[in-house]
Every structure is written in structure tokens, then in C-alpha cells.
Amino acid sequence: MLRSAAIRILSRSTIATRRFSTDLEANAPTDGAFIEAWKKIAPNIDPPKTPLAFIKPRPPTPSSIPSKLTLNFVLPYSSELASKEVDMVIVPATTGQMGILPGHVPTIAELKPGLMSVHEGNDVKKYFVSSGFAFVHANSYADIVAVEAASLDQIDSNQVQKGLAEFTQKLSSASTDLEKAEAQIGVDVHSALNSALSG
Amino acid sequence: MAMAAFRREGRRFVVVSPNLLRSSLLPSSEEQVSLGVRSISTQIVRNRMKSVKNIQKITKAMKMVAASKLRAIQVRAENSRGLWQPFTALLGDTPSVDVKKNVIVTVSADKGLCGGINSTSVKVSRALFKLNSGADKESKYVVLGEKAKAQLIRDSKQHIDLTLTELQKNFLNYTQVSALADEILKNVEYDALRIVFNKFQSVVSFLPTTATIFSPEIVERESEAGKLGDLDSYEVEGGDTKSEILQNLTEFQFSCVMFNAVLENACSEQGARMSAMDSSSRNAGEMLDRLTLTYNRTRQASITTELTEIISGASALEG
């Protein structure tokens, strides 16, 4: 009995706090037109939240160029770097290696398999990323979204050589277009890995 | 099967009050009296107590299972929260943009007994459908999960384009979700994809959420109109044309947002199941207390009756 009472009180207090937090969110930049339209259509149901309600707000573009670049590097299974201030990051764009410094022009870049390095003072961290996107914003924020990435010291060079040989052999023996494309991707990834390890 | 039986039992228990229970006992005890047995039978109450105890065992076990599953999936859901943020930061978040072909992707669970999360996402999807239907517009549903399918098929069967179930049979990873996103993108024509899911907040609360993803053409149109971030100020690297990059970008965005949505929903499901099972095992406990009281009372009454009979019989012999 006491236990249930405690839980009831607990749940009521959480509801109360939620109401307060939504009060706050009304000031947040949500899509007002959507909420109004929603209230006309379904007055009995609270309008659903949108991603904007959960995102960490970002600062406006400063007038002078900041000394550091704020980097977010995310993977599906983890946020590798979250709002980390770094000096420079070099990403493997499809057009070639691209260095990003604070105050870089806003850019959307598609990534190819290759070496990504994060420079922080004298410290350089190297990752091998499979593919993804990099966004550079005007306020010296950079977002890098990759499907898979590994720190370079986790990669075994013997396995890379083996994989490269295997996919090269597959490419020469491929008969259909699909097989050829798959083998080509394998060769590309492994040769990029190889050059990242040697270079 | 067991679940259906359990639910039926539960309903019966809610309705039957101890008084009614005793009155339902009476006829059978009268029968037994007429057969020459003096004591009031407690067999029925004992049986009921046993079944309530068994149900409590089941719900307790289900709660444990949900708790352990929740712990595993909560970590993954929280880790995947960074994934969609870059896209929202870049493209903004404008669910009010008016487009012709709306596709509502409803994410739900395959199994029930998890509180209101499935009906919440169905309700929100229905309202979104209504919001986005009009004279020259067409809206469609894509349904993920058995439970939302069962609810939506009742009244909007003709609007359902695609249903996908048994998401959680295998381990939920990015590869699987992107294959699923690919399946949706290949089979459905869309201008805007509106994903409805329950975002996990805590074990007792989840927030119905909708994420909007536009097709590349709409992104281009709206960014020129200035509604959708200021995409024009961004330089585009790689690819042959801007539209090609935008296509890749929106498809990647869809798979990333889907991945997070599916994980968040799975997490909310386990949380809701845990609290539902917790309250039902508590209810079973209360019911057991009431039944025990009834049982003891009946037993005592029969003892008292027997004693009175013996004493009065003895005093009749003496006198």
C-alpha cells in the first residue's frame, strides 16, 4: 500500500515537472504554424514533439572568427566526439582531403573511405572512416556523421593486405554488374586503408 | 495464449468483489451440505488464490525480463541520440511545410502488454494523417510493427502502403535499419516522410515525437524559399550536381533518423512494459490479500459452526 502511494506521488511529480518543461519549450524555437494547425485538427491530443525540442541549442555566428573549431563526430552506436574544441580536422571528402579550420566557409561534403585526423594542439588523433557526411556551419561548428569509424591503431595491417588480395581477385573474376560493384567497393576501401596505414 | 487467459482472468478479478465472491461460494456449499458434508468448502477460494499467485509470478517474471532488456537497449538508444542532430542543425525542423505526398511512418511494437505506447503512436499518426490530407493531397501510411498494423488496418486499410513487422526479432543494428529504410524508400513515393515514434524519457514517461524528412526536390524548393535553413549559403563538395548530393543527404538522413526512432521506440516499449507489469503484479498482490482474508474468514466460520454444534449437542445430552 505504502509502496503504491509512493509511486503515485512519484509519477504525479514527474508529470508536474514535465508540464513545467513544456512551458519552457514554448519559448524554444518550435514550429508555431504546425502546433496551431495541430490544435485545430486534434484539440484533445497534445501536439507531438519534434526533434528541435531535443537538440542542444547552437550559438549564433560570432562576429570574429573563434580560435577553436567545435567538432561533433557521431557514429550510429556512439558519439565519438561531442562538442569538442579542436584546432583543425582533416576529412576525406569525395573531392580529396579537406582541412577544416575555425571560420571555414559553410560546407556540405560527402565523405569517402579514408583517413580522418583531428588536430588538437600537438595531439593528432587518426580515425579511418567508412563513409558519411561532413557539415561545416558558419559558427565554426563542424558535424561529421559516419557509418563506421575506427581508430587507426585498431586496424591490423595483415588483415588489410589479405582483404585487398581477396577483393582484387574477386574483381577480376566478377561476372555480373552487382558483383563487380561490390568487389570494386571492397578494393577501394582496402586500398584506402592500406594507404592510410602506410602514410 | 497465456496472455489472453491472463487478461481474461484479470478482468474477472477486477469486477468480482469479495462479497460477490462469497455469494458465488454459497450455492456450492449448500450442495455439499445436502450431500451430508457439514463444513463450508474453501476449495474454490483456494483455487482462485493459486491462480492469482501464478499470474503474479508471470507478471513479475515479465517485469524482470523487461528490466534487463531495457538496460541493454537504453544505452544504445542514448548513444544513437547524436546521430540525427547534425541533420536537424543543417536542415532545421519544419513539420508545417505543405507538400503533396505525405508518408506517415508509424513506429510501434510487435508485442502488447506495454501500456499505451502503441495506441499513442497510432493516435498521433491518425491526427497527422488528418492534418496532411486535403483536396489535391494524398497521404499514406507505412506501418512498422504488428500492433499499429492491427489498429490502423481497421479504418484506414486503403491508405496503408507498406507494413513491416518483426523488427526486433534480430538484433537492431544500423545495417538492418538502413536496409529497412532502403525498402521504404524504394517502394513508396514521397514528398515528405513523417516518422512517428515514442521518444524515451524515463521508465515511466515517453514522449510521442514526429520527425520530418523531405525529398530532395522539396529540400531544394524550400531552401530557396528560405523556410528550411539557409542551405544556399553552404558550399557543396563532391558529387556531380547539387541535387545528387541532396538525394544522398536526405536518404542518409532518413536512415539515421529511423535508426534512432526505432531504438527510442524499443526502449520506450520496454520501459512501459516494465511499469505495466510492475503495477499488475502489485494488483495481483492486493487481490491475493483480499482472497486470503476471505479464505481465513470462511475457515474460521466453519470451525465456529462446528464447535457450536458439538457444544450444543453435548449440552442437549446432559440436559
Automatic annotation (TrEMBL), chain A:
GO terms for cellular component: mitochondrial inner membrane; proton-transporting ATP synthase complex. One of its GO terms (molecular function) is proton-transporting ATP synthase activity, rotational mechanism. The keyword Mitochondrion applies. It comes from the Eukaryota. Keywords: ATP synthesis, CF(1), Hydrogen ion transport, Ion transport, Membrane, Mitochondrion, Mitochondrion inner membrane, Transit peptide, Transport. Gene3D superfamilies: ATP synthase delta/epsilon subunit, C-terminal domain (1.20.5.440), F0F1 ATP synthase delta/epsilon subunit, N-terminal (2.60.15.10). SUPFAM superfamilies: Epsilon subunit of F1F0-ATP synthase N-terminal domain. It is found in: Mitochondrion inner membrane. Residues 70-140 form the ATP synthase F1 complex delta/epsilon subunit N-terminal domain. F-type ATPases have 2 components, CF(1) - the catalytic core - and CF(0) - the membrane proton channel. CF(1) has five subunits: alpha(3), beta(3), gamma(1), delta(1), epsilon(1). CF(0) has three main subunits: a, b and c. Belongs to the ATPase epsilon chain family. Mitochondrial membrane ATP synthase (F(1)F(0) ATP synthase or Complex V) produces ATP from ADP in the presence of a proton gradient across the membrane which is generated by electron transport complexes of the respiratory chain. F-type ATPases consist of two structural domains, F(1) - containing the extramembraneous catalytic core, and F(0) - containing the membrane proton channel, linked together by a central stalk and a peripheral stalk. During catalysis, ATP turnover in the catalytic domain of F(1) is coupled via a rotary mechanism of the central stalk subunits to proton translocation. This is ATP synthase subunit delta', mitochondrial.
TrEMBL record, chain B:
GO terms for cellular component: mitochondrial inner membrane; proton-transporting ATP synthase complex. Its main location: mitochondrion. Gene3D superfamilies: 3.40.1380.10, ATP synthase, gamma subunit, helix hairpin domain. InterPro entries: ATP_synth_F1_ATPase_gsu, ATP_synth_F1_gsu, ATP_synth_F1_gsu_CS. It is a peripheral membrane protein. It is found in: Mitochondrion inner membrane. PROSITE patterns: ATPASE_GAMMA (PS00153). Mitochondrial membrane ATP synthase (F(1)F(0) ATP synthase or Complex V) produces ATP from ADP in the presence of a proton gradient across the membrane which is generated by electron transport complexes of the respiratory chain. F-type ATPases consist of two structural domains, F(1) - containing the extramembraneous catalytic core, and F(0) - containing the membrane proton channel, linked together by a central stalk and a peripheral stalk. During catalysis, ATP synthesis in the catalytic domain of F(1) is coupled via a rotary mechanism of the central stalk subunits to proton translocation. NCBIfam families: ATPsyn_F1gamma (TIGR01146). F-type ATPases have 2 components, CF(1) - the catalytic core - and CF(0) - the membrane proton channel. CF(1) has five subunits: alpha(3), beta(3), gamma(1), delta(1), epsilon(1). CF(0) has three main subunits: a, b and c. Belongs to the ATPase gamma chain family. This is ATP synthase subunit gamma, mitochondrial.
